[in-house]
Amino acid sequence: MSAFDIERVRAQFPMLSGREGARKLVFLDSAATSLKPRVVIDAEADFYARDYGTVRRGIYGLSQAATARYEGVREKARSFLNAREVNEIVFTRGTTEAINLVANSFGRSVLKSGDEVLVTAMEHHANIVSWQLVCKAVGATLSVLPIDDSGQLVLAELDRLLSPRVKVVALAHMSNVLGTVNPVAEVARRAHAAGAVVLVDGAQSAAHMPVDVQELGCDFFVCSSHKMCGPSGVGILYGRHEVLEAMPPWQGGGDMIVTVGFDETTFEAPPYRFEAGTPPIAQVIGFGAALDFLDGIGREHLAAHEHGLTDYATGRLHEVPGLRVFGSAPGKGGIIAFVIDGMAPYDIGTLLDEQGIAVRVGHHCAQPLMKRLGVASTVRASFGVYSTRADIDALVEGLHKVRGILS
Ligand code: PLP
Q1: Range(s) for CATH 3.90.1150.10 in the chain?
Q2: Tens digit of pLDDT for each residue in 77-130?
Q3: Is the CA virtual torsion 15, 18, 19, 24 positive or negative?
Q4: CA–CA separation, 45 vs 230, rounded Å?
Q5: Which tens digits make up the pLDDT trace of 141-188?
Q6: Residue 88 Cα to ligand 1 middle (Å)
Q7: Which of 333, 306, 310, 336 minimizes the C-alpha distance to 323?
Q8: 365 in catalytic set
């Protein structure tokens, strides 16, 4: 697919063609999880039906072929993120597990009492709680880079906060509430100058814009397949070779060792050191198909499509009386969180659902950010590769109906 042909893209998503007799789905929750194209569903199903075998354990042909495909996806992931080396790609269960891996392996071996982990005011709980648990265990603390009223990081505060005590800076590439795309390369440059390593939570960016970990200059980048048109249960931890190499294992088990004795065990090099146990093989194969699918469209086309939708939606949503959007950073991604005066987000979400429109309501796993915004919850509409202006029109029309019912 060379140019972005939305109808051709949508035709590849069975969920969008609707079940017989069922209302067409207006899916506006891609920030939570994405729909799956037929190529991903088929890749996983065909693998189970025809080619199934375990990886890195079998001498027989099926296992060796499965291993080759599994490792082939690792190379696709390297290329997708433009990592330098294929062994910088660790498969995890997703973003949450990837952050926990770094916090427990790198964090526990590096952080000491009195040290700090710097996060930002817009982080998802995964990028707060994982660090908090480790900080509590070792006597370190979390510090927080604030945001301004437009939903952008207050970079003027960064150098003051980057004291020699800060060993890790962990921040979202794109906020899952505000849509803000953070200036990660700039933060990484300043954090490195202060002696900290940088973890970028790419859960919201990886499927929506080109990502080049070398350009970002980060030490770790994490993302989830299920938000990238791929299967659930798999994700990526990218770790810079030198950093991964020095990290101890965080889970023990099969396939991450060289030798095991009751007194001592020696461990594999990365990435295998961090992939204990049988991995989600079919899901990784499906993820490979998703990476090919996204690359086939071209993430620059995808980003342009979603920016166009965001601008259109921002304009149209303001037609709804009393509607307030959170986050107005220039170049924000396809995520729009909002409230309507006098109406509970849960009521709005439920009444939209009755019209076949799927949005997210709640705190979006970002309670500290909700506190900063002065609300307990919001409605959130978010876009994906298959979203259209017609989806946004349906949302706006749906909100007018909701107002009619609730006011
Ligand atoms: N970080 C961000 C910014 C997210 O939006 C999400 C999911 O919503 C996560 C982390 C957690 O991702 P997962 O549940 O796939 O591990």
Answers
A1: 6-29+298-406
A2: 999 999 999 999 999 999 999 999 999 999 999 999 999 999 999 999 999 999
A3: positive
A4: 13
A5: 999 999 999 999 999 999 999 999 999 999 999 999 999 999 999 999
A6: 21
A7: 336
A8: yes
Determine the 3-state secondary structure of 292 from DSSP. Answer: helix
Mean pLDDT of the chain: 96
Atom of ligand 1 nearest to the CA of 364: 8
Report, at the CATH architecture level, how domain 42-295 is classified.
Answer: 3-Layer(aba) Sandwich (3.40)
The residue from 135, 218, 223, 365 that is catalytic is 365
Residue 389 in this model has a pLDDT that exceeds 90: yes
The CA distance from 164 to 133, in Å, is 21
The pairing of beta strand 166-172 with beta strand 197-201? parallel
DSSP H helix total and E strand total for the chain: 16, 15
Residue whose CA is closest, atom 12 of ligand 1?
95
- How many angstroms is it from 323 CA to the middle of ligand 1? 26
Q: How far apart are CA 338 and CA 151, in angstroms?
A: 13
Structural contact between residues 245 and 269, judged by C-beta atoms closer than 8 angstroms = yes
> Which residue has tokens 């499927």?
207
Instruction: Say how far apart CA 234 and CA 225 lie, in whole Å.
Output: 6
Q: Is the pLDDT of residue 250 over 60?
A: yes
pLDDT score for 1: 45
Residue range(s) occupied by CATH 3.40.640.10 in the chain: 42-295
Centre of ligand 1 to C-alpha 227, Å, is 8
Q: Contact, 361 vs 28, CB < 8 A?
A: no
What 3 state SS string does 86-100 have? HHHEEEECCHHHHHH
Please give the DSSP secondary-structure letter assigned to residue 153: B
Cβ < 6 A, ligand 1 pocket: 32, 94-96, 124, 126-127, 172, 176, 201, 203-204, 224, 365
Segments in 4-154 forming alpha helices (H): 6-10, 14-17, 38-46, 61-81, 95-102, 108-110, 126-138
Distance CA 67, CA 87 (A): 15
Q: Structurally, what CATH architecture does the domain formed by 6-29+298-406 represent?
A: Alpha-Beta Complex (3.90)
Q: How many Cβ atoms sit within 10 Å of the Cβ of residue 27?
A: 22
